[in-house]
Write a structure and sequence with these properties.
The complex is a heterodimer. Chain A is α/β, with parallel strands linked by helices. Chain A is built from nine helices and ten strands. Chain A has a six-stranded mixed beta sheet with strand order 6-7-8-3-9-10, with helices on both faces.
Chain lengths: ~270, ~575
């Protein structure tokens, strides 16, 4: 059996008396496009921050490419790329300077870093913004730059926290194409997103976290079958197939709850 | 939708001002929930206490002098007090811009604040600084002194002091706002740097000129007598106006006195008008960025140049190693090169050196040639270098402050914090070396080259001080991080506790260096001081290496605090 690209065992993180991530055990096989979903405050970002070394776990184990992240942080970090929640950009560098800097931090020599910088900026359609400081980029441009920085060293595993948030449709297509080409070359992508349509289209496997606990994990079809079976059981007609395939959004809502009943009441001063 | 009817203007303004004051208070109160916040308040109170003591001292002195001048009918001489006060009020905020903290009012622009309210808030926030505290105390003392001697002049003196204070507050803010605007652009920074370099070399001519005045044999009096055109001019300038207005009022010429105060008010209005130009742009949402001025279309040649690897930062690029340490050092230098603060960091020690030079010449008397009595070059070079170290300590003691949310990158990258901090220290070290060279050149041009042992002692003292600063600063950067904004003047203040620690370390370093130098001179062996400083530098180097070995676990243990503090909006 292949060494999982990402594996956690009873991963837990507490903030005082609040448990943000509660005994999460998951496995992501190499080459998977893995979607990590959950409602706001479910523990997605906390998990991804632990997996990328931005946050220490309270207990549990984490392995990336078979290496314990706590025991071998540098060896793991050399093989992963990260777009964290805050993007971690250096605002007062230009896009080219930033990418060159990141490349050198990952051990690329200057000519290689410069060559890859140019290629990435062209691919991300940022080539005409080379003189602009990162702080003056639009949110979408910053996202593209953050993704470019995450892949400049050719990582084997890519962790992306909400990569499509604030990105326009044109840029989203570019990002999606790039991510799919990375998957085609054997990389693993671990992604969180609230845009379920994108996750459904891109990801082969999904895990859902709710109130800190992992409540579902598997391929999209496995999740769909599980939910459909549950629905059928509840309706008393075991095994009866539903008329239409459930979308990821429907699966998600069935698992974590919500829907029209949870809609807000009208606001008195806006009526 | 009746609730959407806005309240009357005056009531809305009052409500908004109360809300702003309330939110400032809540921010302060909420900060006390953490030990770090409480320590911060204690350090601010501690510094505030000493500045208040300084202000009270100034108030007593100004009060005594005011009483003397009023009692002896020499109220014009109050100008002698007001000129230094004026210079302090204007120069101190610039000299201390690396340490002071100005409230950021730009986020108020999204609220429906009327422009006059915005101006009021901006000026009120800007007025809470050390210069205003000390200046206010001195003026209060002066008014009390004059009123004790001449009770009839109380109202006039109070009005004059108020107008003078308002003028200084407005002028200081106007200078700050315009400098910030000019220095935000690369092109203007380059022009100002060029002007500054020319100025440094023009100092070459100042020395002989000063000497010519002194060799005339009459010291300050001669210098003043050779500049007679300055005397009538002085009475029309803001520091002279209150003095002459009060003197006129004391002689019963109330109309002349009132005209003087009106002219002072006009000076204040002129400062406000120039400040208004900046504030109006700010109010309309102007952002001071490099690229705001950049051309929208990129020519092919420029685009090709931009595609090339980033430039090697001139001479610095030669000494910076390849690899992660060098990458961090380059990144720091690029960051600082784009900061208006850097201009001041490099310029102020040299500017103060020149002022220092004039101070000593002005203090000279016939028969007491400064060169004979006091080796100015000997003092200028080490004092300038010590000041440069002090100015940069703000960055050294909060070295992640400029990275903001970018600090997350260091945690996800495979580079150790030992290397990251070495890179930052390398950048600061290169700046200090460049600064020391500039100060050496300025000191040599004004007063001739310093003695060899002074150069050696200063260089070793700099090594000792810098290594102490790097060692302590690396630890405090991890323990007391605070996000700072390099793009705005007066937004580089680190945590108060870091500032206090930095001052403590500087005091210790300068104290030990002074003991070594004085000891060496007392025993007639100046080179003994060099030896002692060399030993101190070696000891500091060992301490630095020990700290570097300990930073990784500290950084990892404090990563949540670091990221949270530096990623704050």
């Amino acid at each position: 059996m292949d060494t999982p690209a990402v594996a956690t065992e009873a991963l837990t993180r507490r903030f005082g008396s609040f448990t943000a991530v509660d005994g999460v055990t998951l496995r992501v096989a190499p080459g998977q496009f893995f979607g990590f979903l959950g409602p706001n405050g479910a523990g997605k970002s906390t998990t991804i921050r632990m997996l990328t070394g931005l946050l220490a776990p309270t207990s549990g184990r984490m392995e990336v490419l078979g290496l314990d992240l706590v025991a071998h942080p540098a060896a793991v970090k050399r093989q992963i790329g990260v777009v964290p929640e805050g993007m971690a950009l250096f605002g007062r560098l230009t896009g080219a300077e930033y990418l060159n800097f990141v490349g050198q931090m990952y051990g690329l020599d200057r000519p290689t870093a410069a060559r890859r910088t140019n290629e990435l900026l062209e691919l991300m359609q940022l080539g005409d913004q080379m003189k602009k400081l990162v702080t003056d980029y639009s949110h979408g441009m910053q996202k593209k730059l953050a993704l470019a920085a995450a892949v400049i060293h050719g990582p084997r595993v890519l962790f992306l926290d909400e990569p499509f948030e604030g990105v326009d449709a044109v840029a989203a297509v570019t990002l999606k194409n790039m991510l799919q080409s990375m998957i085609a070359r054997g990389a693993t992508i671990f992604l969180t997103s609230h845009v379920l349509e994108i996750v459904e289209r891109l990801c082969s496997h999904v895990a859902i976290i709710h109130r800190g606990r992992l409540v579902a994990q598997g391929s999209l079809d496995e999740l769909r079958q599980g939910v459909e079976a549950g629905v059928a059981a509840a309706a008393g007609a075991e095994g009866a197939p539903t008329a239409e395939k459930l979308t990821l959004e429907q699966i998600f809502l069935r698992i974590v709850g919500g829907g029209p009943a949870a809609a807000p009441q009208e606001l008195s001063w806006l009526s | 939708m009746a609730e959407l009817t806005p309240p009357p203007r005056a009531s809305l303004t009052g409500q908004q001002l109360r809300a702003i004051a309330g939110v400032r208070w809540r921010l302060m109160a909420n900060s006390l929930r953490t030990t770090r916040g409480a320590l911060e308040l204690v350090s601010h109170l501690w510094m505030g206490f000493w500045f208040a003591v300084l202000g009270l001292g100034g108030a007593v002195g100004a009060g005594a002098a005011g009483w003397y001048f009023a009692a002896h009918g020499q109220l014009e001489w109050i100008a002698v007090l007001l000129w230094p006060l004026f210079l302090f009020w204007q120069v101190f905020p610039l000299a201390a811009s690396a340490f002071t903290e100005q409230a950021d009012t730009s986020n108020l622009a999204r609220f429906p604040l009327r422009y006059p309210t915005y101006v009021l808030v901006r000026i009120a926030f800007g007025a809470f600084d050390v210069a205003t505290l000390v200046g206010g105390f001195c003026l209060l003392g002066l008014v009390i002194g004059v009123a004790i001697a001449r009770p009839g002049l109380l109202a006039g003196a109070a009005l004059a002091a108020l107008l003078f204070a308002a003028f200084n507050i407005l002028l200081a803010q106007m200078i700050f706002a315009w400098l910030e605007r000019w220095l935000a652009r690369r092109r203007t920074r380059e022009i100002l740097t060029l002007v500054f370099i020319l100025l440094v070399f023009s100092i070459n001519f100042i020395g002989p000129l000063s000497r010519r005045w002194h060799l005339g044999g009459a010291g300050v009096e001669t210098s003043a007598s050779q500049l007679p055109w300055l005397v009538p001019l002085e009475r029309w300038l803001p520091p002279g106006l209150p003095a002459h207005a009060l003197a006129a009022a004391a002689r019963g010429h109330y109309g002349v006195g009132a005209a003087g105060l009106l002219l002072l008010a006009a000076w204040g209005m002129a400062a406000l008008a120039l400040l208004h130009l900046r504030l109006r742009a700010e109010y309309r949402g102007e952002t001071l960025t490099e690229s705001a001025a950049a051309p929208r279309t990129v020519r092919p040649a420029a685009a090709a140049a931009a595609r090339a690897p980033p430039a090697e930062l001139g001479l610095a690029g030669v000494v910076i190693p390849v690899g992660p340490v060098g990458a961090v050092a380059r990144k720091e230098l690029r960051y600082l090169a784009r900061s208006p603060m850097m201009f001041f960091t490099l310029a102020m020690p040299v500017v103060l050196l020149v002022l220092f030079h004039f101070q000593f010449f002005a203090a000279g008397r016939p028969g007491m040639h400064p060169r004979g009595q006091l080796n100015l070059a000997g003092i200028g070079f080490p004092v300038g270098v010590a000041y440069a170290l002090l100015v940069l300590s703000n960055l050294i003691f909060n070295s992640f402050g400029t990275d903001a949310a970018g600090v997350q990158f260091y945690f996800v990258s495979p580079v150790s914090f030992r290397q990251i901090l070495m890179g930052k220290n390398l950048a600061y070290g290169l700046i200090l070396v460049a600064e020391a060279v500039a100060i050496y050149v300025a000191a040599t041009l004004t007063d001739g080259p310093p003695a060899a042992w002074i150069v050696a002692a200063t260089v070793l003292g700099l090594a000792f001080g810098a290594l102490c600063d790097f060692a302590c600063g690396n630890l405090l950067s991890l323990y007391m991080p605070k996000k700072i904004d390099l793009s705005r003047l007066g937004r580089q203040g680190g945590r108060g506790t870091s500032g206090l620690a930095a001052l403590l370390v500087q005091g210790l370093v300068i104290g030990l260096a002074a003991i070594a130098v004085v000891g060496g001179r007392v025993y007639g062996h100046p080179w003994l001081a060099v030896l002692i400083l060399a030993l101190l530098a070696v000891a500091a180097g060992l301490g630095y290496v020990a700290v570097l070995g300990a930073v990784e676990p500290i950084a990892q243990g404090r990563r949540e605090t670091l990221i949270a503090e530096l990623s704050k909006a």
